[in-house]
Specification:
Family: Belongs to the class-III pyridoxal-phosphate-dependent aminotransferase family. HemL subfamily.
CATH architecture of the domain at 66-310: 3-Layer(aba) Sandwich
Structural class: alpha/beta
Order of helices and strands: HEEEHHEHEHHEHEHEHEEHHEEHHEEH
Keywords: Cytoplasm, Isomerase, Porphyrin biosynthesis, Pyridoxal phosphate
CATH superfamily of the domain at 66-310: Type I PLP-dependent aspartate aminotransferase-like (Major domain)
Enzyme class: isomerase
Protein name: Glutamate-1-semialdehyde 2,1-aminomutase
GO molecular function, one term: pyridoxal phosphate binding
Number of strands: 14
Strand content: 5-15%
Largest sheet: 7 strands, mixed
CATH topology of the domain at 66-310: Aspartate Aminotransferase, domain 2
Shape: globular
Strand order of the largest sheet: 4-10-9-8-7-5-6
Helix content: 40-55%
């Protein structure tokens, strides 16, 4: 019995289902990580994997990046928790504002879910209205307002609305199809009590689904015309697709932005940010309450400062390299699947991609759900066996990092070739 198998057996006795997040589970059992470095991760049996799960997108700079560890190490010598303001919180907020033109003020929080929860509360406090519109397949964290037709682990486990959620809450969440601005307009016209619209500008929790031409600009126009705050959930895309996130990439300014993942490069930190007239509603100056003991944690803040400074310093090389590597990988995988006559679609952008086993384009929640997830699981199992770790769910994304090398790409293509042969059979 492998160490991971034994550890999973032990974990199930003390941890629900043996994991602390549903997306980490896969049959027959997940491997247990021991260490990581650069583009690699090792399990408890000392097997080495090329890591394309990448902290579900958090590790744009790779594992154990020198600049991050140096900054954190320096802070550890000064203290780990103060619960009083620090100069570094100001520095980080200024860095975020400098990268995102739509942002005028920043409130630091701990997780992406906390950030989206606060963003929704802010939208309601600003408009004095109740209803929130989200899009099918977009995942905004595990809180009641947004666990309705959500992506990520919720979609993977077939949970449309979570047990334990209140009907009184979910009834105030309206769901629109992604890439369909006409439906959004219809929903708004029928509901005069819409407090905000929240969206992943690039849907990265239903596999990878890209916004079609003019979709995001249409969403921005519709929300502006109806005086509805637009929330860009950039937990995944913030810093990953450009130094200023998807909003810089597509040239759109939302009213509120949420950030996490790459912001901390592996450390626990997130932010809700936006226009000052909205952000000023947060307590203690305003009446929208939000608080946290660990908000602005100095260790995490030091990691985030180093992360943004590093990204800004190398941005001209970083994003072009990742796009080049992504194009190489997706082109090779596409050729392999085509040569084997396997029905498939590959969606890709910047440093992210995903393959779907279907003969129809994947543009929304329904078309993603209709892809053959059993074939994906077959592929995942063989990739893992051959030392390639991607997220175990069809409804996640393959992430590249600055740490990946040309040798990593070559080995990955070989592993995909072996895996696709299994899918074909």
């Amino acid at each position: 019995m492998s160490k991971s198998h034994k550890l999973f057996h032990d974990a199930k006795k003390v941890i629900p289902s043996g994991v602390n997040s549903p997306v980490r589970f896969f049959e027959p059992y997940p491997f247990f990580a021991k260490k990581s470095d650069g583009s690699h991760i090792w399990d408890e049996d000392n097997k080495k994997y090329i890591d394309f799960c990448n902290g579900y997108g958090a590790l744009l700079l790779g594992h154990r990046r020198k600049e991050i560890l140096t900054s954190v190490s320096k802070q550890l010598k000064q203290g780990t928790l103060f619960c009083t303001p620090t100069n570094s919180e100001i520095e980080l907020s200024k860095l975020i504002i400098g990268n995102f033109p739509s942002i005028e003020k920043v409130r630091l929080v701990n997780t992406g879910g906390e950030a989206t929860m606060t963003a929704i509360r802010l939208a309601r406090g600003f408009t004095k209205k109740k209803k929130i519109i989200k899009f099918e397949g977009c995942y905004h964290g595990a809180h009641d307002s947004v666990l309705v037709k959500a992506g990520s682990g919720s979609a993977h486990n077939g949970i449309s609305v979570s047990d334990g959620g209140l009907d009184e809450v979910s009834k105030n969440t309206l769901v629109a199809p992604y890439n369909n601005s006409e439906e959004l307009e219809k929903i708004i016209s029928k509901n005069k009590d819409v407090a905000g619209v929240i969206i992943e500008p690039i849907l990265a929790n239903m596999g990878l689904i890209l916004p079609q031409k003019n979709f995001l600009s249409d969403v921005r126009k519709i929300t502006k015309d109806n005086n509805i705050p637009l929330i860009f959930d950039e937990v995944v895309t913030g810093f990953r697709v450009s130094p200023g996130g998807a909003q810089q990439y597509f040239g759109i300014k939302p009213d509120i932005t949420t950030l996490a993942k790459t912001l901390g490069s592996g450390f626990v930190i997130a932010a809700v940010a936006g226009k000052k007239e909205i952000m000023n509603l947060l307590s203690p100056g305003g009446k929208v309450y939000q608080a946290s003991t660990y908000a602005g944690n100095p260790v995490s803040v030091s990691a985030a400062i180093a992360s943004i400074k590093t990204i800004n310093k190398i941005k001209n090389q970083l994003y072009s390299k990742l796009e080049k590597y992504n194009a190489f990988l997706t082109s090779a995988i596409d050729d392999l699947a085509s040569d084997m006559k396997i029905s498939h679609q590959i969606n890709s952008t910047s440093s992210m991609f995903q393959i779907f086993f279907t003969d129809k384009p994947v543009t929304d929640y329904i078309s993603s759900k209709n892809a053959d997830s059993k074939k994906f699981k077959k592929m995942f199992d063989v990739l893992l066996k051959n030392g390639i770790f991607i997220a175990p769910s069809q409804f996640e994304v393959v992430f590249l990092s600055d740490a990946h090398t040309k040798d990593d790409l070559s080995n990955t293509v070989n592993a995909y070739e072996t895996a696709l042969k299994t899918v074909k059979n």
